[in-house]
Design brief:
Mean pLDDT: 79
Oligomer: single chain
Strand order of the largest sheet: 1-2
Number of helices: 9
Helix content: over 70%
Number of strands: 2
Structural class: mainly alpha
Strand content: under 5%
Length: about 240
């Protein structure tokens, strides 16, 4: 029951974010082609590959519920194969055979490529840590968290201006998502560090450097994502 609950929580956030992202894409590029669904599926596939490497292949034993909430709940709800299928059939019914075939090729090919790139990036970024007597700093995992934080804020900066939601609601949503991400990513760094407790004899004080480093790195990445998003909007 506990695992079902965390999957439901992750799925609720994934579904909301998918709606905001796809709606923003369609407001921006129009509905002549399923750009929104394509974007969420490709970006979700990249995140799935990246976080599968970071969350599962590191074999953090007691974080099973945490992994389920992200990989099954959040990313499962953020991506959508059923909508891709429906939109492709609609294109065929409307006589847009070329667009339908293009959607199939782009969706399948791009998603497979995105998963592969995500796995490669995750493997490259999530295999290192600094250790000393009584301490551990998983800098590679912090780098993965920072990359995801950058992408999250960049996407929100670019697309929320396209979604017809009141400014106060947009602000509330940003605060919730940013706060939740900082909390969960820092918690995972702590869980990662605790896996080495028997080897490094970690105490509460030894966990603080990883927690603080992750928070600072993610906040910096979010600030860069905000700047990059604003610059992107100036050109498009």
């Amino acid at each position: 029951m506990h695992q079902l609950l965390v999957i439901a929580i992750g799925g609720s956030f994934g579904a909301v974010l998918r709606f905001l992202v796809s709606s923003g894409i369609y407001q921006w590029l129009g509905k002549g082609f399923p750009y929104g669904t394509l974007f969420v599926n490709v970006s979700g596939s990249f995140l799935l590959g990246l976080l599968t490497e970071a969350l599962i292949l590191n074999r953090i034993v007691f974080a099973q519920d945490y992994r389920s909430a992200i990989l099954v709940g959040f990313i499962g709800a953020f991506t959508t194969f059923s909508t891709f299928s429906l939109e492709t059939v609609y294109l065929m019914v409307q006589g847009e055979i070329t667009k339908a075939l293009l959607n199939i090729v782009l969706s399948v090919g791009s998603c497979l490529l995105a998963v592969g790139v995500g796995l490669f990036c995750g493997k490259t970024l999530s295999t290192g840590h600094l250790s000393w007597s009584g301490g551990l700093l998983p800098y590679a995992l912090i780098a993965v968290n920072a990359v995801v934080a950058f992408l999250l804020v960049f996407i929100m900066t670019v697309l929320l201006v396209k979604v017809p939601i009141a400014t106060v609601h947009q602000l509330a949503l940003i605060i919730i998502l940013v706060g939740l991400y900082l909390t969960l990513s820092s918690l995972y760094v702590v869980l990662y560090s605790l896996e080495y407790d028997e080897l490094f004899k970690l105490s509460l004080m030894n966990l603080i450097p990883g927690f603080v480093s992750n928070t600072v790195a993610c906040l910096l990445a979010m600030w860069l994502g905000l700047l990059a998003g604003k610059q992107f909007l100036k050109f498009f």
